[in-house]
Amino acid sequence: MTTDIDRALAKMSALGIIEPEARPQAVRDLEVAQARSLEGIEQCTSLESLRILGCSIADYSPLARLGALRLLTVENCDLADTAWAAGLQLKVAVLRRNRVRDGRPVVTISTLHVLDLSGNPLDHQSREAAVAHAGSRLLTLDDEETAELNVLLADARTGIVSYRSGDSLWACATGLDLVPHPEAGHVLTSPEELRDMARGNISPGEFLGLDASNNMGGGR
Question: Which Gene3D superfamilies does the UniProt entry name for this protein (predicted)?
């Protein structure tokens, strides 16, 4: 059976990024998008750079077996648990716009130079730990208001997170529950609108401008 990782490898090969018919053990760079499983990724033992975009994987623990991994990006996914990261020697971890509450297993990786946890419903302990371990690393966290909004949205199980870009507040889906491409179609919003959604006055689908007949679509 062809897995999501098989498809990711085939796509990278078709784009000329990796050699045709390259063995998984030889691959050093990989992008996985719109996937629902990491089955087989443990074979990529030489993987140094990995991007996981717009996925609903649930179990990210296979990443713990990628001992060569140094650069990891996970964006707009259902990533919630980070316990698998504790033994890795990452230099860059960009875990933006996910569902992470307890980020301490990532925060405490001593080899990190860059850490981005923006757009996550981080708990207070994780935010404190991130600042305490920052040292000389480049650290990106949400401001206090955005952090509070993300906790409210997560508590309400909306599948939506918010983040700042300059002075603007944006929001988007995490994982594949609401849209087929959560890395696209982000929505310009306001704190008031997001609080309304957390209260149940606006549905996530309505917020994203989805077609009610098929519950699929892009941002407004």
Answer: Ribonuclease Inhibitor
How large is the average pLDDT for residues 75-101?
Answer: 98
Residue where one domain finishes, among candidates 83, 108, 141: 141
The domain containing residue 66 runs over which residues? Answer: 1-141
**Do 178 and 118 fall within a single domain?**
no
Q: pLDDT tens-digit profile of 162-217?
A: 999 999 999 999 999 999 999 998 999 999 999 999 999 999 999 999 854 343 33
| Percent of the chain clearing pLDDT 70 (strictly above) | 95
**Residues in the chain, how many?**
220
Distance CA 47, CA 193 (A): 41
Burial of 139 per CB tally in 10 Å (0-12, 13-18, 19+): middle
Record the tokens describing residue 166, joined without a space: 């300059």
